[in-house]
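[Discussion] Sanity-checking designs against the backbone

I'm trying to build intuition for which residues belong where. Below is a structure token string of 429 positions. I'd appreciate it if someone posts a full sequence so I can compare it with mine line by line.
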């Protein structure tokens, strides 16, 4: 029997009439909100692609362009996920015995007392490279150039690079170990975004990660950097095949680092043991074997993946995009730059609260509560540098007052001009 649309109209109008007004009133703001999320969530992504797609297609992206591109994913769209991607990239290097043995010998990660300081400083230094302009020409974190500025006004990225170069110069580190670490920083964020993020990185973003980290590598003096992200992947795969082997030093360094990451998880009811297993699930099989970690049951892998993908689903469809950039270190300049010595505070604090301001009034009691519940293991204070940090001071406590002149000289060479103004040594006077 042929379908007659007109014959169905009474049922259609009857359905409209019988709609619950309360349901309609509730549905309209919900649907409107979801549409708003959808409209805004991709706005920054679309804008950066409109700005740089032509340069990407022509192969002319500069390191400064690449830095602006990667900030969209790592500082706005997926800051927490991609920060952990970098943390696990560094963690992955501990599966190389030449790296783990050096860390054990220097006691930097061979002792749990030093892990928290090194972890805090490493996050700050890397986020300073990523979030402060490589060129030194100030830009804001809304991806707009500072048209009023002229010359180098924010040299912190080069100071941070110089500080790392100075610290590393004290040790005999092979070029291949440097290169492997650099490659993981370039490859792991796009990999984590694809596996666990609310969106994957585009080909342009993946290339931008390569361009940015290759530039960092050149400024660190790393040689034989592969000429593409694909070549980086091939090189790292072969390096892992030949150099990532089981060693007791791997296991020891991994244990101290895992203890720091899970310091807030209680021992009771086997919660910490369970969390340690969850951490192992995030490792590649080659890394797990090299770190001499036990095989985890299938259900833990399911828990890890389903939890991360649930967060990604909620973030993509139900959460409005971030308005301000989120990086572990302080990348915005202090509001008051008139003082002689700008000191900075990170945006997140470790269990041992390095660089967290000592509080007074009600916040003192808040910090006491945080200590009692295990969020921090002690109160902030001068012994944890509660007065903040300067980039040239970062590193082991025994070296925090050492090498500043040489660091500034090295930073000036990297920047191509002297370091002047409030970030210079003279600015501390």
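Best answer:
Here's mine. Compare freely.
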């Amino acid at each position: 029997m042929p379908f007659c649309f007109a014959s169905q109209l009474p049922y259609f109008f009857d359905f409209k009439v019988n709609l619950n007004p309360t349901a309609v009133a509730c549905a309209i703001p919900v649907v409107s909100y979801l549409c708003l999320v959808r409209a805004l969530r991709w706005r920054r992504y679309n804008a950066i692609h409109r700005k740089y797609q032509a340069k990407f297609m022509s192969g002319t992206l500069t390191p400064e362009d690449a830095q602006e591109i990667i900030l969209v994913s790592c500082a706005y769209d997926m800051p927490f996920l991609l920060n952990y991607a970098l943390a696990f990239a560094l963690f992955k290097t501990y599966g190389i015995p030449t790296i783990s043995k050096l860390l054990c010998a220097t006691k930097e990660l061979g002792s749990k007392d030093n892990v928290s300081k090194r972890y805090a400083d490493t996050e700050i230094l890397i986020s300073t490279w990523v979030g402060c302009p490589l060129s030194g020409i100030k830009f804001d974190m809304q991806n707009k150039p500072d048209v009023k500025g002229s010359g180098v006004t924010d040299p912190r990225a080069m100071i941070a690079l110089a500080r790392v170069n100075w610290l590393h110069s004290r040790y005999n580190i092979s070029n291949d170990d440097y290169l492997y670490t650099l490659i993981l920083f370039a490859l792991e964020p796009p990999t984590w975004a694809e596996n666990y993020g609310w969106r994957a990185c585009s080909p342009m973003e993946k290339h931008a990660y390569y361009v940015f980290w290759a530039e960092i590598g050149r400024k660190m003096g790393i040689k034989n950097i592969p000429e593409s992200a694909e070549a980086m992947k091939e090189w790292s795969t072969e390096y892992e095949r030949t150099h990532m082997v089981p060693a007791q030093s791997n296991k020891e360094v991994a244990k101290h680092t895992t203890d720091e990451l899970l310091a807030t998880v209680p021992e009771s009811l086997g919660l910490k043991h369970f969390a340690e297993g969850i951490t192992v699930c995030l490792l590649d099989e080659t890394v797990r074997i090299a770190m001499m970690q036990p095989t985890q049951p299938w259900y833990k892998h399911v828990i890890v993946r389903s939890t991360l993908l649930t967060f990604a689903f909620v973030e993509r469809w139900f959460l409005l995009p971030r308005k301000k950039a989120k990086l572990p270190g302080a990348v915005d300049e202090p509001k008051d730059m008139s003082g002689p010595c700008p000191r900075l505070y990170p945006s997140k604090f470790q269990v041992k609260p390095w660089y967290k301001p000592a509080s007074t009034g009600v916040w003192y009691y808040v910090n006491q509560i945080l200590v009692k519940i295990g969020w921090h293991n002690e109160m902030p204070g001068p012994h944890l540098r509660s007065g903040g940090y300067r980039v040239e001071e970062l590193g082991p406590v025994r070296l925090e007052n050492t090498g500043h002149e040489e660091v500034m000289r090295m930073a000036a060479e990297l920047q191509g001009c002297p370091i002047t103004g409030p970030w210079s040594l003279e600015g501390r006077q």
